[in-house]
Amino acid sequence: MQKYLPLFPLNIVVFPGEKLNLHIFEPRYKQLVYDCIESGGTFGIPTYINNGVGLYGTEIKLLQVEKKYENGEMDIRTQGIGIFKIVEFDKQAPGRLYAGGQVEEVENLEDEDIVTKEQIREKLRELYTALGISNIFLDLPENFTSYDVGHHLGLNTEQEYTLLQCNSEAMRQEMILQHLQQVLPIVAETEKLKERVKLNGHFKNLTPPNF
């Protein structure tokens, strides 16, 4: 199904379900937000990547305007709904300051693999333990999806964008697991290296060998 969406390109990837807070200061995006308030409609955030507007993005609903400033700037709370692909892009939507485009909804296959999911949970625990940071994944809900952990894997924007373009949960899970399997040994080795660096320079209480 196709529809016309106001577009707000940003050099980030927004996943469905994700909550995003934005500070709106450019006149064109102030206009976009006011249009959405007036119509009760949604807008799209296509990922700006490799010096251009990517074909894929996330439809966004406006949850609330948190704060309005005297100069017209705003803080808004939003949430990602679903993924779209741009069919036709207008640098300016008809009669508006902001961009717009004809988009088609990307169907998401909810074909998760339970075994892969548990492997991801375990590898995430290992990763966060190795990094020595508080493990936010200890309390991951049973029904978590790849989108829930997408920003917590150490992926760069290109990798997150690849994840966004994939319309199968099972395939996204495979990509995530593969990434974790590749990155864990590197992290473990880096932690060992840090320990070795710390040890150098300390007074060492060593027992000389007998010979």
TrEMBL record:
InterPro entries: Lon_prtase_N, Lon_prtase_N_sf, PUA-like_sf. Gene3D superfamilies: LON domain-like. SMART domains: LON. It comes from the Bacteria. Residues 4-182 form the Lon N-terminal domain. This is Lon N-terminal domain-containing protein. The lineage of its organism: Bacteria, Pseudomonadati, Bacteroidota, Cytophagia, Cytophagales.
